[in-house]
């Protein structure tokens, strides 16, 4: 659930940023804005965590084997007597069921429309009309539209040649040819997948309206740039809207769609489209770098090779266990004897460095009460840098327990309570590093 929420707010932030970017390109072609909105749509299908994982895997494959470091493990345990925990309400099954129901409803609706459209296409007959794609004529009162994703067909309503002039029909065919060249049906199908997966998230539906609006405007601009008369082109669209039904699917691009009044005004204005200048190109490039580079770089530094390299430079692993005993009675339970911590003896690592052993102040953290009450447990693995005063700084979690409270408790306790004797590596002139493993365990005990 946490991963889903993280993905949603990250994708929504990207959507807001891209929405702001489109304002800088209002004077440029609609194809630029459509590409930006399409990138926002794809972000919902590609979480940043996926980019980080991909970068981590690629970096691991390209990295050579590293020498296995010598590790020093010191284990403690600490038991806490608590009352029986009440089993928390598991929200995952009902939430998953609600999502699946919505997903099936959306997909079922679109699948029904698609099957009807395909049946109409199968009953259609060929037409002798010059176009860069196959053309068929149907008796259905559907607007002219491009049907199909990988091998689209132009489906025209029967009798359209009697309702439109030859010039108007050419303009309609030119509009659909533009959809073909831009692969608008494919982009629309991808966003329909986004809408089905995130049907509960209103921004994805709003994004769908922006994609349709900009793709239709992009085709309008292309048709006018090819030399079509604005008056004839506008009249052809109005006649189609008057006599025929709108396309039932976004992935079957037709002629109508978006704000018709605004489209007519833009077509009749036929404004000159400005080219993208160098500063705007630099803005696009910088935006792409800011969005893509951080998760990729994070993946490089979280690869097994990178982690191993960090352990080689400081191989000591310190491991503690914070355990809570679930008792059904109130009989006190004595704490088990604690092992005597090791003295600050030096340990020689596989890379030849000498580092200090753990000090005597490394007690396990207290078990968070909220996590105890909800029976949450897990293991936190993180790396810390030890400054010259023996304090832990710059903690970086390598493996989460799956519970943010447990993670925060482990890191906060080590940073605030643990101390090291940094003497032993370069005479204390450089900071040490440690890999810390904290186990949180709930152990049932019979009174």
How many beta-strand runs?
11
Assembly classification: single chain
SS-derived structural category: alpha/beta
**Are there runs of 5+ residues with pLDDT below 50, and where?**
66-85, 305-315, 327-360, 424-430
The shape, in one word, is elongated
Our estimate of the beta-strand percent is 5-15%
In spatial order, strands of the major sheet run 1-6-11-9-10
The percent of residues in helical segments reads: 40-55%
Overall mean pLDDT stands at 79
Please tally the helical runs, counting DSSP H or I stretches of 4 or more residues: 14
How many separate domains? Answer: 2
Order of SSEs: HHHEHEEEEHHHHHHHHEEEHEEHE
Topology diagram in text:
Elements: H1 2-24, H2 30-45, H3 48-62, E1 77-82, H4 92-123, E2 125-126, E3 135-138, E4 145-147, E5 153-157, H5 160-163, H6 166-182, H7 184-197, H8 202-225, H9 230-243, H10 260-269, H11 278-301, H12 304-313, E6 317-326, E7 346-348, E8 354-356, H13 369-373, E9 378-386, E10 392-399, H14 404-417, E11 432-444
Parallel strand pairs: 1-6, 3-5, 6-11
Antiparallel strand pairs: 2-3, 4-5, 7-8, 9-10, 9-11
């Amino acid at each position: 659930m946490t991963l889903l929420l993280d993905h949603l707010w990250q994708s929504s932030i990207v959507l807001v940023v891209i929405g702001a970017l489109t304002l800088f390109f209002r004077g440029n072609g609609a194809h630029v804005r459509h590409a930006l909105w399409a990138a926002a749509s794809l972000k919902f299908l590609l979480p940043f965590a996926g980019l980080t994982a991909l970068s981590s895997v690629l970096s691991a494959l390209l990295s050579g084997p590293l020498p296995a470091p010598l590790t020093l493990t010191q284990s403690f345990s600490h038991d806490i007597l608590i009352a029986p925990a009440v089993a928390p309400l598991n929200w995952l099954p009902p939430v998953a069921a609600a999502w699946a129901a919505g997903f099936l409803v959306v997909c079922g609706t679109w699948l029904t429309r698609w099957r009807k459209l395909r049946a109409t296409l199968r009953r259609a007959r060929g037409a002798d009309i010059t176009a860069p794609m196959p053309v068929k004529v149907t008796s259905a009162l559907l607007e002219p539209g491009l049907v199909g994703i990988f091998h689209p067909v132009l489906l025209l309503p029967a009798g359209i040649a009697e309702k439109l002039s030859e010039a108007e029909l050419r303009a309609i065919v030119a509009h659909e040819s533009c959809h073909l060249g831009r692969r608008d049906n494919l982009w629309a199908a991808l966003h329909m997948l986004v809408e089905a997966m995130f049907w509960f998230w209103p921004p994805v539906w709003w994004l769908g309206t922006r994609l349709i609006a900009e793709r239709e405007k992009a085709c309008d601009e292309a048709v006018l740039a090819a030399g079509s008369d604005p008056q004839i082109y506008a009249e052809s669209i109005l006649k189609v809207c008057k006599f025929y039904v709108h396309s039932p699917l976004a992935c079957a691009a037709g002629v109508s769609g978006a704000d018709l009044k605004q489209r007519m005004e833009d077509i009749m204005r036929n404004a000159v489209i400005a080219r993208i200048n160098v500063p705007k190109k630099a803005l696009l490039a910088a935006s792409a770098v800011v969005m893509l580079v951080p998760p990729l770089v994070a993946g490089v530094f979280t690869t097994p090779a990178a982690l191993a390299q960090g352990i080689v430079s400081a191989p000591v692993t310190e491991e503690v266990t914070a355990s809570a005993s679930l008792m059904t009675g109130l009989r006190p339970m004595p704490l088990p004897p604690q092992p005597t911590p090791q003295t600050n003896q030096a340990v020689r690592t596989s890379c030849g460095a000498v580092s200090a052993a753990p000090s005597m102040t490394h007690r396990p953290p207290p078990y968070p009460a909220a996590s105890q009450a909800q029976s949450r447990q897990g293991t936190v693995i993180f790396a810390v840098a030890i400054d010259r005063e023996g304090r832990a700084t710059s903690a970086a979690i390598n493996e989460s327990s799956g519970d943010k409270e447990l993670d925060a408790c482990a890191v906060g306790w080590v940073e605030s309570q643990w101390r090291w004797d940094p003497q032993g590596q370069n005479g204390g002139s450089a900071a040490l590093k440690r890999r810390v493993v904290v186990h949180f365990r709930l152990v049932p005990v019979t009174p």
